[in-house]
Amino acid sequence: MKKKTYLVTGASGFIGRALVDRLRLEGHDVRRAVRRMVPGAFNVQCPLGASVDAWHDALEGVDGVFHLAWSTVPKTADRLPLDDVTTNVVGTVGLLEALRRRPGLPMVFASSGGTVYGAPETTPVSEAHPLRPLGLYGASKVSAEVYAMLYRRQFGVDARILRISNPYGPGQNVEGQLGAASIFAWRALTGHEIRIWGDGSIVRDYLYIDDVVGAFSAAIKVDPDAFGSSEPILNIGSGHGTSLKQIVETISDILGRPIRVEYESSRYFDVPVNVLEVSRAEQLLGWTATTGLRDGMSKMLDHFSKQLVSQVQLT
Question: Which residue, 68, 62, 86, 78, is CA-closest to 12?
């Protein structure tokens, strides 16, 4: 496999860190676009709000771009909609403008399979499903997608979009607002109560982090002609639905003990079911998820257990 150089935005995030590790393991060089310069031979100061010229310079000598940087989560986007649009959508357009000056350079954009569709009319949800986000985070992701495909049609930018389901695994922020599977595992392992909004029947498509970055790696490598005249927009998920209650039951079974759960009022933006149809990714990328939920949860719990042991040894 030919050694390449890739630019990764959002390289300090959950998926970004895992993707950087994966690309380096494959033998590639990785240039990390960072908000503030930190020590590192392959870092370049280029936040989302950078100028088009700054983006253009950051792209010098790279063979492809992974655009994962995003400054909000659903809750913060609803609270600060103008900041969300100004930073994320406008910033993404700035990157697209720079890519317009570098024809043929592929960019893979991380969109959200969990928010862009809204309340699904049918499940599993295919890429052809109408885009009806229920929150501003999803609306911004849709806007970035629209710009990416417009730049593809009108200016020849090789933009590709992955609509990711619900990623989980080691490295996710277990104190954050995203990642029920990771948060539940950490809280159960450390003896804390798990909080569930609603009755636990909400079903989502959970995807282990190794499978997520495998999809990104496959998406950047595929020949642009593989998409034909269709837009390169692909759902990336396990293709299987799991309820919040089932996650708790799986963790409990692995740990061999009951887990305390507190149920709270449901939230308006939590649709009952969201499971992605993923056959197009298998067909065009040759990619499919290989880690089932139980195996993924076992790996994550083992990682967390070792992390706790290390913390104890350091105290």
Answer: 68
Which structure tokens are listed for 141?
A: 């992701």
Token reading at 58? 């950051």
What's the rounded mean pLDDT across residues 128-156? 97
CA distance 107 to 144: 13
User: Which member of 6, 117, 137, 168 is catalytic?
Assistant: 137
* Distance in angstroms (rounded) separating the CA atoms of residues 215 and 291: 13
DSSP symbols for 75-137: HHHHH-HHHHIIIIIHHHHHHHHHHHTSTT--EEEEEETTTSS-S-SSSSBPTTS----SSHH
CA distance 69 to 194: 29
The 10s digit of each residue's pLDDT in 69-127 is 999 999 899 999 999 999 999 999 999 999 999 999 999 999 999 999 999 999 999 99
Q: Is the pLDDT of residue 315 over 60?
A: no
Report pLDDT digits (tens) over 249-288: 999 999 999 999 999 998 877 889 999 999 999 999 999 9
Active site residue 168: no
Q: Which amino acid is at 136?
A: L
Residues whose CB is less than 8 angstroms from the CB of residue 294 and which lie 6 or more positions away in sequence, other chains included: 250, 254
Rounded-to-integer distance, Cα 315 and Cα 305, Å:
16
CB-based contact 274:117 (threshold 8 Å): yes
Name the burial class of residue 251, with classes exposed (0-12), middle (13-18) and buried (19+) by CB atoms within 10 angstroms of its CB. Answer: buried
